[in-house]
Amino acid sequence: xxxxHRVLVAATAVLAVVAGAATASASxxxxxxxxxxxxxxxxxxxxALVEVRDERGVWGGTSGVAELDTTRAVPxxxxxxxxxxxxxxxxxVALQLVGEERLRLxxxxxxxxxxxxxxxxxxxxxxxxxHTSGLYDYKPTLPMPPEPEFLDHRWRTWTAAELVERxxxxxxxxxxxxxxxxxxxxxxxxxxxxxxxxxxxxxxxxIERRIIRPLRLRDTSLPGASPLMPGPHARGYVPIxxxxxxxxxxxxxxxxxVLGAGGExxxxxxxxxxxxxxxxxxxxxxxxxxxxxxxxxxxxREYGLGLAWQDTSCGVxxxxxxxxxxxxxxxxxxxxxxxxxxxxxxxxxxxxxxxxAVDALLNEAFCGA
Length: 369
Hints:
alpha+beta
């Protein structure tokens, strides 16, 4: 039976419980980050966690609860669905293949996937990576919360080919390719297919052997069609309209094939911090390809080849990505020199938008004492 909760309950009694307050021995910077994490929960989350790594060591905090109608603390090293942070892993593998001269950024989609995309000869691998292909995003073609029909596909296994077909049945977001920016998950489904064409192995296998195993990311996985969360985790929820009102439905278990190469991965704050440090530290890509990754596809856009960036309140630019897997939201950023990394994850309650509170947390973590 589907477990549901009234959003109003989530907004009041349950979320009055805050777990993981900073200890008396915490530094002023740690206290500040914990306070901002509490603000994230107050802004619209059931629970949240953060891990900060810098030259002084590692510090983590949690806030809120791991499950509605309980006082169970959020597991500090808990797993979560990372959503579009998966794109940074996929992009890293694609760029490694470029470095091996097995793939070129200016190769066309048609060259690797003949007949899959209309006018695929005009769309390049680079444009898939930086969202300038103009390909329609497949996600709006699917029912989404709070529509009740969203739950009809919860356990369905989707193929990349099925989802791409749904996308290309719609006209491009703009033309010609490369002339503008429009975020498209479709592009990353195609990148996953191209990686398989180049290597003879799935993108998941390539991420496993090129990134996960070498970096010892023990709590990171690509679940494919498995609905399970393999380790300790907070429960995640989505709002669904039922009987004339919206209720939170437990959506922790779901078939992640609908996210595919654009968002299926599961990880932890610890593993994401380790990955970003290795990427920006030059352990995964040579300098010239890391520079390509940091080059925007369109002027004034803070997005390169699977990598985003933002400027903090103290003027420090940080690189990484964020992800929205509906029941889980996450952020993973690091300074360009790799000396400080911050990863944040939350389970939203949809009372409000926690983005501003997360930005404040990132500013505190990167700029505070």
